[in-house]
Amino acid sequence: MNNIKRSLLIGMALLIAGAASAQNFRYIGADNCKTCHNKPETGAQYDHWVKDPHSQSLKILSSEKAVEYGKENGIANPATDDKCLKCHSTFHAIPSNLRNGIKEDEGVSCEGCHGPGSSYRGPAIMRNRTLAVRQGLILQTEELCTKCHNPENPFHKEFDFKAAFEKTAHPDPTRK
């Protein structure tokens, strides 16, 4: 199977999986993730996210550079345009009926990368990776990241998944 066909099949599978997840799971918001993922002894993942550009991605759309790009390309306001919001805001990228606690200003929230947390958020489920995935946890893949980090992005830079993954990593040191 050639690479193009393989990529198309993977893309279709991800879309189908995403649609299924969207039907069954709701987004709970970073504040709910923070209750368990902000403890130093387990990695303080929330603190890592707050310092990561993903958490500020919505604010970037109001920057002078983004506004200038918008004017040059027929986008009145990047901070309210769906073409921009689909990658810069988890809140705006999901159907309103799935927003069960996610806040509009979260940028690319925890669930933008890990999937809607309503069904995998419990400690017993989170301790079992297989069960958590079955309950909606999404594990990071290059295909997931390149939905936004791709040449369609007007500020696209060469994307190295491995380097980006290491840079944004926020592991739980108690997890083996």
Question: What does this molecule look like?
Answer:
The protein has a single domain, classed as Flavocytochrome C3, Chain A, domain 2 (Orthogonal Bundle), CATH 1.10.1130. Helix content is 48%, strand content 0%. It is globular and about 50 Å long. With 176 residues, the protein is an all-alpha fold. It has helices spanning 3-24, 30-34, 45-51, 57-60, 64-72, 82-88, 90-93, 110-114, 123-126, 129-134, 142-145, 161-168. The chain starts with a helix and ends in an 8-residue tail after the last helix. The chain is built from 12 helices and no strands.
Question: How is this fold's topology laid out?
Answer:
Elements lengths: L2 H22 L5 H5 L10 H7 L5 H4 L3 H9 L9 H7 L1 H4 L16 H5 L8 H4 L2 H6 L7 H4 L15 H8 L8
CATH topology: Flavocytochrome C3, Chain A, domain 2
> Helix tally?
12
Top CATH class: Mainly Alpha
Query: Pairing-aware structural class of the strands and helices?
Result: mainly alpha
Q: What proportion of the residues is helical, as a percent range?
A: 40-55%
Main beta-sheet annotation? none
How many separate structural domains? 1
Strand content: under 5%
- The string of secondary-structure elements, in order, is HHHHHHHHHHHH
Shape: globular
Point out poorly predicted stretches: 5-22
Task: Please name the defining characteristics of this protein.
single chain; 176 residues; mainly alpha; Flavocytochrome C3, Chain A, domain 2; 48% helix
Summed up:
By secondary structure, this protein is mainly alpha-helical. 48% of the residues lie in helices and 0% in strands.
